[in-house]
Write a structure and sequence with these properties.
mainly alpha; Serine Threonine Protein Phosphatase 5, Tetratricopeptide repeat; Tetratricopeptide (TPR) repeat protein; 32 helices
Length: 599
């Protein structure tokens, strides 16, 4: 019976205490400090080990400006708990509110002077100073704590305090101390650096890490790995790669670290560094390595992008790339693993080296290779159909488009095949049938196909009724086919004839836009820019306007070296033409040029 009475009594007083705590806190939050002071005093007496209740009691007295009472309570408590140095901070806060700056300073100094070798008390004192935004005193508290407790690290606390003060070099130093003491927290430290360091302070981090590497054990990889990470943040992939290769050799790794940096460099368009990374793997890891084939394939793709992305290449560059593709396929053959590489080689032959027979031969091998997946085979057929069309073999082209359409009826590949077949009908002058197909494709789940289909449908509808013979539209379609076939001189001649035969025709803006595309293919960037600017300045209602803004922005960003102009064009596109399919990508490009972090 006595036991049960004790249990019920304990439960009763525990419940009462919890209710009083909630009520006291509510009074405190509502500014009713007389009531909160009384309740927190009762709670502090009931639980003398709970410093929170006493702190809230004294704070309530200070809020009421009952300073003598608060001072008496603090002195009494300090006699009971001389090790509770956070009380000196509260004492100093009270004196500061009475404008006794010197008295407050003495109390803060005492807190640090009397600090015991106790981690809890050190942390509590640091937090007490932080609560008053007295970061210098908090720093001194943690530094004193580090002297008292040699085996306990306060580097994280110090790093956070230096960040609050805006002292980035010391913040970096503190977090590097933490990395040295607890290497398992390196990722967390990298997150802090990523969040808080700009380019200038990343350079500072780089400098400090270099110094640490000189002093560290040569077997410790913490700082070399962190240095590589800093290089990556700064997009200095060449230096990051140098670190990665050194670590790969030192740790006898399989090259995956180097591969990742190669992929990041390629995505950032640092093709030279990416190619160096892939070549390191293929030269040093051997064909038995699990990533050899991937590195070989990525190296080819990157070499191709290095040549074609900026349109800045020579025939010799193309020949070197062709040799690399051929050597790859000679080594691995044309099979399911290499089929996509073979399709890329065909594209190189057809679109850049203008060797259509060679491109067609490669694609025939892909299509007939055993084990190649249906989608990859379908992509090969679509490319082959394009190259047959470029060769003037229309029936072979439409047959292949139709095969893919039938095999992938409700798939995006089927939609793509149907679009290309409809475009072929447009080239040949079967405008009504082409338009009916484009109208169906406007509902495609691929926004790109749907948008292209909509553009061509509207274009045919706008121009078909202007001339009972549809001669102007047919002439323009002929010019587009010639551009598709890379017969640029013939395309220019056709467009010139169209302008002479149909002066002031509604196709004027379309002619200028197509001329811009031809100049771009010919790498005549100034002429291309002039054509797109002509659309923007003189054809404000043209359906080609958003495309012209996009194309001109790309030119200024990548070829004409005027990032500010490119940024302005992208801004105009996503603000004034927000319904354009290009608006979202234009916003991304704009933010990237502005220096934002784009996901």
């Amino acid at each position: 019976m006595r036991t049960w009475i004790f249990v019920f009594a304990s439960l009763f007083f525990t419940t009462l205490s919890a209710q009083n705590n909630q009520l006291a806190q509510q009074y405190y939050n509502d500014g009713e400090y007389e009531k909160s002071a009384q309740l927190f005093l009762e709670l502090a007496k009931a639980k003398p080990g709970n410093s929170y209740y006493f702190d809230r009691y004294v704070t309530s007295l200070i809020k009421l400006e009952r300073y003598k009472e608060a001072e008496g309570a603090l002195k009494k408590q300090l006699r009971k708990q001389p090790q509770a140095v956070a009380l000196y901070v509260k004492y100093g806060q009270m004196l500061e509110q009475q404008f006794d700056e010197n008295g407050a300073k003495k109390q803060y100094e005492r807190a640090i002077e009397y600090l015991p070798a106790d981690q809890y008390q050190i942390t509590q004192l640091g937090n007490a100073f932080i609560g008053l935004t007295k970061y210098d005193y908090a720093i001194r508290a943690y530094e004193r704590g580090g002297e008292l407790l040699k085996k306990v690290s306060f580097s994280s606390n110090l790093g956070d305090l230096y960040r609050r003060k805006g002292d980035m070099p010391r913040m970096i130093g503190s977090y590097l101390d933490l990395a040295q003491q607890q290497p398992n927290r390196t990722r967390q430290i990298q997150t802090y650096f990523q969040r808080f360091l700009d380019e200038e302070h990343l350079l500072e981090a780089q400098k400090q890490i270099y110094a640490r590497i000189q002093e560290a054990d040569e077997n410790d990889t913490t700082f070399p790995e962190m240095l590589a990470w800093v290089f990556i943040q700064r997009k200095d992939f060449k230096s990051a790669l140098r670190q990665a290769r050194a670590l790969d050799k030192r740790l006898s790794e399989n090259g995956e670290r180097v591969l990742r940096i190669g992929q990041m460099a390629a995505n950032a368009k640092d093709y030279a560094s990416a190619i160096t990374a892939y070549d390191y793997i293929t030269d040093n890891k051997g064909s038995a390595s699990g990533i050899y084939l991937e590195a070989k394939r990525e190296g080819l793709i990157t070499r191709r992008r290095a040549i074609t992305d900026g349109y800045d290449y020579t025939v010799e560059d193309l020949k070197i790339l062709e040799t690399a593709y051929v050597e790859f396929l000679d080594e691995f053959g044309i099979n399911p693993a290499s089929a996509r590489i073979a399709i890329q080689l065909a594209e190189l032959e057809a679109l850049y080296l203008v060797d259509l027979p060679k491109a067609i031969d490669v694609l025939d091998q892909v299509i007939n290779a055993p084990g190649v997946s249906g989608p990859v085979q379908a992509n090969a057929k679509l490319a082959l159909a394009d190259y047959y069309l470029m060769s003037g073999e229309v029936w072979e082209s439409t047959l292949l488009y139709s095969q893919v359409d039938k095999a992938f009826k409700e798939d995006l590949l089927g939609h793509e095949a149907r679009f290309r077949n409809a475009r072929l009908s447009y080239f040949r002058g079967d405008f009504e049938w082409a338009q009916s197909q484009f109208d169906v494709l406007k509902a495609s789940t691929s926004r790109l196909i749907a948008n292209d289909a909509l553009d061509l449908s509207v274009f045919i509808m706008d121009n078909l009724g202007l001339d009972t013979s549809a001669l102007a539209l047919q002439t323009y379609a002929d010019a587009e086919l010639l551009v598709f076939q890379n017969r640029f001189d013939d395309a220019f001649a056709t467009l010139d004839g169209l302008k002479k035969e149909f002066p002031n025709h509604d196709l004027e803006d379309d002619i200028v836009y197509l001329e811009g595309k031809i100049y771009l293919k010919l790498r005549k960037y100034d002429e291309a820019a002039a054509a797109y600017q002509n659309i923007i300045d003189n054809y404000r209602e043209s359906i080609r306007l958003d495309n012209s803004l996009w194309a001109l922005g790309n030119l200024y960003e990548n070829q004409l070296a005027d990032k500010a102009r490119a940024q302005k064009l992208y801004e105009t596109l996503f603000i004034d033409y927000s319904n354009s399919i290009l608006a979202v990508e234009a916003r991304k490009r704009y933010r990237a040029l502005r220096g934002d972090s784009v996901q």
